[in-house]
């Protein structure tokens, strides 16, 4: 039986960390939908046409570790404003969401556009400053040279683009459970998410 968990939220809010943990604990499959936009953005940086790149995307392209850089994140949020690119990526996400055995998808429009019928929806937020600190620590830990100011500016630019675009803007679904991780450690954030999902599962039995 399909059970879909939609996890949305702004950059570096912790939704990927939460989604991976939910998938592991529940035995569900996980899709980081940001990787789809990053893979298209990566190809556009290399000179490709955005729509052609989206239409030709394969699951294997999502494993590329170079998708995790700040430059690719910015390129992803720029191609993500294009309605035809978004439309080309819908079927892949919906097929993943309805697979047997359960699925967790994280992104920006999962609960609102991709899976409005998802059985559980979470909206994960944290202050821009805390998100930037976490991402700064992550990037410098990987040996990527940057400054906290640069990362904060990147987070704010992506927030503005993701929330302000006409197509599928980032916003909470009306029935999403909000989780503010600003003052939560990872374990507390995962526990809050798991509690919310369990409540939805119990409500269905
Ligand atoms: N509650 C938390 N406390 C401290 N650090 C956290 C917390 N949640 C996540 N992190 C760390 O913050 C960073 C960003 O988290 P994560 O990748 O899960 O965010 P995201 O919302 O999926 O980001 P993006 O949209 O950019 O992919 C990671 O390094 C992660 O380990
Ligand atoms: N469902 C989604 C997922 C992502 N995006 C865009 O891609 C950018 C990168 O996503 P990350 O989750 O890896 O940070 C993001 O800034 C969005 O512009 C999207 O539009 N919809």
UniProtKB/TrEMBL annotation:
Compartments where located: Cytoplasm
Keyword ATP-binding: yes
InterPro entries linked: Cytidylate_kin (IPR003136), Cytidylate_kinase_dom (IPR011994), P-loop_NTPase (IPR027417)
Gene3D superfamilies (UniProt xref): P-loop containing nucleotide triphosphate hydrolases (3.40.50.300)
Residues where ATP binds: 9-17
A Gene Ontology BP annotation from the UniProt entry: pyrimidine nucleotide metabolic process
SUPFAM superfamilies named in the record: P-loop containing nucleoside triphosphate hydrolases
Keywords: ATP-binding, Cytoplasm, Kinase, Nucleotide-binding, Transferase
EC category: transferase
Positions of the Cytidylate kinase domain: 5-196
EC number(s) reported in the record: 2.7.4.25
GO cellular component: a single term: cytoplasm
Family per record: Belongs to the cytidylate kinase family. Type 1 subfamily.
Protein name (record): Cytidylate kinase
Source organism of the structure: Marinovum algicola
């Amino acid at each position: 039986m399909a059970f879909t968990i939609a996890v949305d939220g702004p950059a570096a809010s912790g939704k990927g960390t939460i989604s991976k943990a939910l998938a592991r604990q529940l035995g569900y499959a996980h899709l980081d939908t940001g990787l789809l936009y990053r893979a298209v953005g990566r190809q556009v940086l290399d000179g490709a046409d955005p729509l052609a790149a989206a239409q030709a995307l394969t699951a294997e392209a999502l494993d590329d570790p170079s998708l995790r850089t700040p430059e690719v994140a910015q390129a992803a949020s720029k191609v993500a404003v294009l309605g035809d690119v978004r439309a080309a990526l819908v079927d892949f996400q919906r097929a993943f969401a309805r697979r047997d055995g359960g699925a967790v998808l994280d992104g920006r429009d999962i609960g609102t556009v991709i899976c409005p019928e998802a059985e559980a929806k979470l909206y994960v937020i944290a202050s821009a400053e805390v998100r930037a600190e976490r991402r700064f620590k992550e990037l410098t830990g990987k040996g990527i040279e940057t400054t906290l100011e640069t990362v904060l500016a990147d987070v704010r630019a992506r927030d503005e683009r993701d929330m302000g675009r006409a197509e599928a803007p980032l916003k909470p679904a009306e029935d999403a459970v909000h989780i503010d991780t600003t003052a939560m450690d990872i374990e507390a954030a995962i526990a809050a998410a798991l509690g919310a999902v369990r409540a939805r599962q119990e409500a269905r039995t």
